[in-house]
Design goal:
The chain is an alpha+beta fold. It is built from 5 helices and 12 strands. It has one domain: Acyl-CoA thioesterase, double hotdog domain (Porin, Beta Barrel).
């Protein structure tokens, strides 16, 4: 297996400390704090460990404090309710004695019912598109060292945008973008694992959609961005080791915050997940 993907799977294997209490490690991916997707994935895994036979259909989370990549994260799970069909869990992530994140998640026993979905956008497939990591030398020469390391870092997923961003010459664009994403290698047949990895990758690309109409440049360090809250709804079964289209849009930005949404489709056009996130976006004067 690809070593970066294998490391991510290991990161999601939490240590059980006590009943309903788990501990996870972190990885520095070049962001100022622990990557939000990591905390989402680990928190969902912690909640899943307290259930049997029920699958997550939604989660809602708040990021409270910046996570420290050099310290472990403790996840405390509250088994709020186990009903006939649904189970509810609350998870608090703690570092240095303080909560940095909390999440409510709901799980359901498999069930059939009415079905409909929105249509998949009519866009080109992933074949032939450049990966996000394929950044030209001319662009890398113009960014600071930390940004250069972030852009060239090996990731566990292939990320292929239909229209790659130009960090050196940003343009005002509609707050819409399409990105194909797929894990770099074949994964085990574990639906819980695929959901945890979807939670992880759901933090890719999302908030940046809200900056597209404003021609914001990230290369000079003048932009401060941080996730505030995050929601995921799981609609149908999926595999993150098969190509998925992430269709992003941002309906609003105001008050130093931006809202972004995403719908996730398989290549065959089935809607499998929806996400939404509001985040802090501050542009400092140069």
């Amino acid at each position: 297996m690809d070593p970066v993907l294998a490391d991510l799977l290991q990161l999601l294997e939490l240590e059980r400390i006590e009943e309903n209490i788990y501990r996870g490690e972190s990885r520095d991916i070049g962001t100022p704090q622990v990557f939000g997707g990591q905390v989402l994935g680990q928190a969902l895994q912690a909640a899943t460990h307290t259930l049997d036979g029920r699958i997550c259909h939604s989660l809602h989370a708040y990021f409270l404090r910046r996570g420290d990549v050099n310290a472990p994260i403790v996840y405390e799970v509250d088994r709020a309710r186990d009903g006939g069909s649904f189970s509810s869990r609350r998870v608090v992530a703690i570092q240095h004695g303080k909560p940095i994140f909390n999440m409510a998640a709901s799980f359901q026993s498999p069930e059939t019912g009415i079905e409909h979905q929105q249509d998949m956008p009519d866009v080109a497939g992933p074949e032939g598109l450049a990966d996000r990591s394929e950044v030209g030398e001319a662009m890398l020469a113009q960014v600071h060292e930390k940004m250069r390391a972030y852009l060239t870092r090996q990731r566990p997923f292939m990320v292929r945008p239909l229209h790659p961003p130009d960090y050196t010459n940003p343009q005002q664009l509609r707050p819409v973008k399409y990105v194909w994403i797929k894990a770099k290698d074949r994964l085990p047949d574990d639906p819980d694992l695929h959901q945890a990895l979807m939670a992880y990758v759901s933090d890719y690309e999302l908030l940046g959609t809200a900056t597209l109409p404003h021609a914001i440049s990230f290369i000079d360090g003048s932009v401060q961005m941080a996730s505030l809250d995050h929601a995921v709804w799981f609609h149908n079964d999926f595999r993150v080791d098969e190509w998925l289209l992430f269709a992003f849009d941002s309906p609003s930005a105001s008050g130093g915050r931006g809202l972004a949404r995403c719908t996730v489709f398989t290549q065959s056009g089935q809607l499998v997940a929806s996400t939404a996130q509001e985040g802090l976006i501050r542009v400092r004067s140069k």
